[in-house]
Amino acid sequence: MATVTPNVEVAWVMGFLFFTIYLFAFEVVDVDVAAVTVMVLLGLSSLLAPIMGLKAGLVDTQKLFVGFSSNAVISIIAVMIIGAGLDKTGLMSKVAGFILKVGGTTETRIIPIISGTVGIISSFMQNVGAAALFLPVVSRISARTGLPMSRLLMPMGFCAILGGTVTMVGSSPLILLNDLMLTSNAALPPEQQMKTWSLFSVTPVGLVLVSVGILYFIIAGRFVLPVTKTSGGAPDNVMDYFRRIYGLDYVLNEVVVPSGSSVIGKTLDEVEHDYGVRVIAASRSANEVLIGPNALDRDTQIQAGFVLGVLANQDKLSNFAEKYNLNVRKDLETFTESLAPTKVGIAELVIPPGSTLIGKSARDVWMRKTYGVSMVGLHRQGATLGEGEGIRAMPLAAGDTLVVHTAWDVLSRLEKDRNFVVVTTEYPHEELRPQKVTWALTFFGIALFMVLFTDLRLSVALLTGAMGMVLSGVLKIEEAYEAVSWKTVFLLASLIPLGAAVENSGAAAWIAQQVLAALGTPPAWVLQTALAILATFFTLVMSNVGATVLLVPLAVNIAIAAGANPAVFALTVAIATSNSFLIPTHQVNALIMGPAGYRVPDFIRAGSVMTILFLVVMIFMMNLIF
Q: How big is the CA angle at 603 (ends 115 and 483), to the nearest 5 degrees?
């Protein structure tokens, strides 16, 4: 590499570089605002060039906004839309339901299943999205098994971050990397040009990192994971609310009807009235679940082999099961998905003046069958009546508050029904489209096929899948827009001009020279490790995208000066920016901090070892493979 003599241009670029790091590290403004500000200042350098002592601006204003149309930015937008489309069909919820069935109740079994699944999913969708998807699943498992959320969420969160290293579309830095390499190629002679990485180039490294992360928590989890006193998540909080306000102390259990039980042949109406229990779901077979409107009613007869979803006071449930020799399951198995808290729950409805239901009882209107709501409590004039107190035979009056168990999509429809006022507002309003799962998988497969087996640009291939989901009705265009994190888009697109300025001005080459002069002539792996440590530090104090944009040009120049492979050094930086475990600055860590009750020292204790393991395994695997 030719010797670079620092000049005015290099000095100004270095000034912009340190200014950017300062804005990111001290959070003077939001990171996206900081990035856009720096981009605008780079553009103004064309106007102020004579005053700054420059012949021309630091960045050509004709190319200042090319980041917004770059391959990397469009690819990230498409990945977000594809991930939202798969989630919209309920496919991801089915995966979550399967985990609940096979996960068991032990920490050493649940952690690898949840963490491994999240790791794989986050290799094809944004890791914060994968973590958010499994947050209610972990909450449910915590409530059912008694395992604290704090013992489960950190392994899941860390593996979501690690999963971003499994493919070249798993994280924003890896999506961005090929574009940064092409930018560096523009300043390199033909014999030093770098080839871009393919979708699965990084997979061996990523899979080993995910596996090490899982093993780490299996072996050392008992020592590094905290035990906090947080609740088991939203479902428990909701039950606490109804227990506190209405005195309704209900639990949800699955009850199996064995052959020979004397309950066989009885109707739901008989057992519910006599024993004060409420059947909210029933299943004759694995493929037939009765829940919601036109599914169950009071005349439904109980049959041998039925699995009943029963909501009741614990004592009343025990009496009911003992009387008829029924088997009460410890965990939900049959209704894991259909009674998931993301789909159903307890809500409050008020009967308004003018409702056609006034003067009629729940029995008169067949409320469970007609409206899909199972009334479990009635609050009237300061008093609350519960199951077994004849609430369904009482004529309804204006102002009555009904405590009901219902599906969220049913509750959403009842908001438009003038017979009710829906008091509950904090519930999932999202409309799932399970009938579109075939289209979603088809266009996901088409996009994946084009990425793997054609020379089409990554952005075009992924955007084909994204638009296919919109055109086929998997997502509405408004939902596609909402799926995109525009903060990430503006952050990434606005930093690309700075990366180009660092490279084209010679600033990156000059920094590389100073690093090599300070270190002497160490082996390539030592330089690679130093870059990985530097990237790890940068990503803790600024965004991983920002760290990648700033360090990839530096890594390329250091590699060339040391006679190493610049593409491998660039990849080292992009992977190392996922090494963000020490403090909760990563979006995933910030997401899980509240629900699990984590404190910063908890991340330092568990994350310090994970950070070292990440560096050791990454350097070893990269030198082994590349």
A: 55
Determine the residue type at 216: Y
CA distances from 59 to 47, 178, 201, 228, 501 (A): 11, 21, 32, 51, 6
- Alpha carbon distance 347, 281 (integer Å): 16
Rounded Cα distance, 192 and 564, in Å: 11
The identity of residue 72, as a single letter, is A
What is the token pair recorded at 17?
Answer: 């570089």
Amino acid at 239: M
Neighbours of 349 (CB within 10 A): 24
Q: What are phi and psi of 407, to 5 degrees?
A: -80, 145
pLDDT at 624 over 80: yes
User: Is the predicted pLDDT of residue 464 greater than 90, yes or no?
Assistant: yes
Residue located via tokens 């827009």 = 481
**Dihedral pair phi/psi, residue 610, rounded to 5°:** -65, -35
| Helices marked H in 476-599 | 477-483, 486-504, 507-519, 524-541, 544-562, 566-576, 587-596
Any idea of the CA torsion for 313, 315, 316, 322, to the nearest 10 degrees? 140
251 vs 339: CA distance, rounded Å: 13
- How far apart are alpha carbons 441 and 325 in whole angstroms? 45
Tokens (6 digits) for 505: 């001005």
Q: Rounded to an integer, what distance in angstroms lies between the CA atom of residue 78 and that of residue 76?
A: 5
List Cβ<8 Å contacts ≥24 apart for 413-416: 414/349, 414/371, 414/373
In this predicted model, what pLDDT tens digit does every residue of 62-85 receive, in sequence order?
A: 989 988 988 878 888 888 898 888
Cα(480)–Cα(79) distance, integer angstroms: 11
Please give the single-letter amino acid code of residue 47: L
